[in-house]
Specification:
Elements lengths: L1 E8 L9 E9 L2 E10 L4 H18 L9 H22 L7 E2 L1 E7 L2 E7 L3 E6 L2 E4 L6 H8 L4 H5 L20 E6 L5 E5 L1 H4 L4 H9 L7 H11 L6 E8 L1
Antiparallel strand pairs: 1-11, 2-3, 3-4, 3-5, 5-6, 6-9, 7-8, 7-10, 10-11
């Protein structure tokens, strides 16, 4: 059985919320969710994230009822449809030129979770043994960490931590990373934009999901922590619980 919750907020500084999310529990053992964080100016970032979500959902609606035959292929197709929509709008609308968006998405099938990411929105697996960042940021500082030029702690406060190296909608075709995890009862999947992960630590996420109170209130508690710290960016999180 899968349960899911989501929340988004513009934060304390930004004038507009350029994040967007979607979640749907299609059956007791089949669920889909995604988080997008738009970029490209006051209007364009909002359009990019909303277009990406809408296009991904349209691709989802084209599936026959039941579980997709190839979950990873479905995620890739959804990302390609979203990329095409954002790229086409950016090319044809002068106000949207240069816009793009991150995307992190998950499809759960029974106890199998298939995940996709582009950019620096993240997916975490939270369980009784700890918290794992499943996805890898497509960002300048993540590349520096992988090379050994920065520690993860230094990366959190680096002045260029928001520079991403890959985004949806900026090129005609998109390269997405795919991941797979097998879930156990009591496991949780958390998808979030960098507005959460930049100000709330992994251990705080773990605590609020597993020990902070009722699980259905975990997204609200995480948002409240971000807001209490000034939330300089939009904040979005989607949480799945596997029972």
């Amino acid at each position: 059985m899968i349960k899911a919750w989501g929340i988004t907020d513009r934060g304390c500084v930004r004038q507009q919320n350029q994040d967007a999310y979607y979640l749907d529990v299609l059956s007791g053992n089949l669920a889909v969710g995604l988080v997008c964080d738009g970029m490209g100016g006051a209007r364009a970032g909002n359009i990019a994230s909303m277009l990406a979500v809408e296009s991904f959902v349209e691709a989802l609606k084209q599936l026959p009822p039941g579980t997709p035959d190839d979950p990873e292929a479905f995620l890739r197709q959804g990302a390609e449809c979203a990329n095409e929509a954002v790229y086409r709008r950016a090319r044809t609308d002068p106000d949207c030129r240069g816009m793009g968006t991150t995307m992190v998405a998950v499809l759960t099938e029974e106890k199998e979770a298939y995940l996709l990411n582009i950019g620096d929105s993240r997916a975490y697996l939270i369980s009784s043994v700890g918290i794992e960042k499943v996805t890898r940021d497509h960002s300048l500082v993540e590349d520096m960490v992988r090379r050994g030029d920065l520690t993860p702690e230094q990366a959190r406060s680096h002045p260029q931590k928001n520079l991403i190296t890959r985004a949806l909608g900026t090129e005609e075709h998109v390269r997405a990373d795919l991941f797979h995890r097998t879930l156990e009862p009591g496991d949780h999947l958390l998808l979030c934009s960098d507005g959460l992960s930049n100000v709330v630590s992994d251990q705080e996420m773990l605590y609020e999901v597993l020990h902070g109170g009722e699980v259905e209130g975990a997204c609200r508690r995480l948002l409240d922590i971000a807001l209490s710290r000034g939330a300089p960016d939009n904040v979005t999180c989607v949480l799945f619980q596997y029972e």
